[in-house]
Amino acid sequence: MYIKKQRLLTPGPTPLLPQAMHAMMGADIHHRTADFRKLYKQVLADLQFVMGTKNDVLVLVASGSGALEAAAANFLSPGDHVLICSAGKFGERFIEIAKAWGLKATVLTAEYGGAVAPEVVERALAEHPDLKAVMVQASETSTGSMHDIRRMGLAVKQTKALMIVDAITGLGTMPLEIDEWGLDVVAGGSQKAFMIPPGVAFLSISPKAWEAGRSAQLPRFYFDLRKELKNAVNGESAWTPSIAILLALAEALIYVKELGMDKLIANAEFLAQATRKAVTALGLELFSSSPGNSVTAIKAPPGMDSGVIVKEFRTRFGSIITNGQGSMQGQIFRIAHLGYFDISDCFMLIAQLELILAANGYPVQFGRGVAAAQEAYAAVAIAPGAVLV
Question: Where are any strands of DSSP class E within the chain?
């Protein structure tokens, strides 16, 4: 009661893989040596493997937003017409990137908590044959929603446009068949499902995207992906890399390979389902009509500010969760499931939530939400024929 361990339970940064943290202590190697070249080549190969693609994969010293900006700068030209799917704060970031780089944007908007329907994208592709790219979030963590990337990607694949996907919280939480679905540029980040600190972003890049990049005229210097590719062939980065984070990433990728990317995704999916069952059993309402697996967004009870719930998690239990963003601040709170989370985290969070709600005047039958999560676990883990262990 008097000792509180801080627990990071947000959709990024996420809880850290212990062996990845330990690996960071070996960062005293030079980035123009054989030791580093071996590390770098292995990281790129393992990223390609866990992402399930034959496309080139590159690493940048940046947050995921740096990878998104690099996608625009390397494959588009001033005035190019792009289609942006916006269903939350991160969709709005694509709009800001397009504006910054002088792109002509047609924006398909869904209300917060919703998702842009794939048929709307298909219709826009038919109406605008001059489109150079379609930009979309796989997982919109500001609202807890996800997009139908498969159907969107297959539609874009039939056109000359590039499919640029912000999969920063989508990788490791939902299926993304990069090559089969025609996902030309897919961006990821270290501090999400890959269980390590912020510091590097990565991109998979298709031959179609590289071909478009040959005539792209937007300026670039630090984020020149052709320069990165040329250096990566020899096991080097174009600029000084984040060696500590790359060492951590190498260990995280070993873990994901051993676990299986499908199991990492299934873990997030199961925790999301268990959490949704638990909070609805408590009488709370989900915010998203198209819920994803990276994070569950939950409406605060009527008359209660979600910021109170977020603060109570931190002050009472040392648990760090997230409030809503922008206009949703005070209305929703978000519980993450991506990366190094397990079922015990779920049980703990729901038990804490019950106590917080009760302390703030919301009627709670203690154990009801936890029981719903337990029942979800029991159905797949201890029932006859169960496969989850």
Answer: 7-8, 56-60, 81-86, 104-109, 133-137, 139-140, 145-146, 162-166, 185-189, 201-205, 295-299, 319-320, 322-323, 332-336
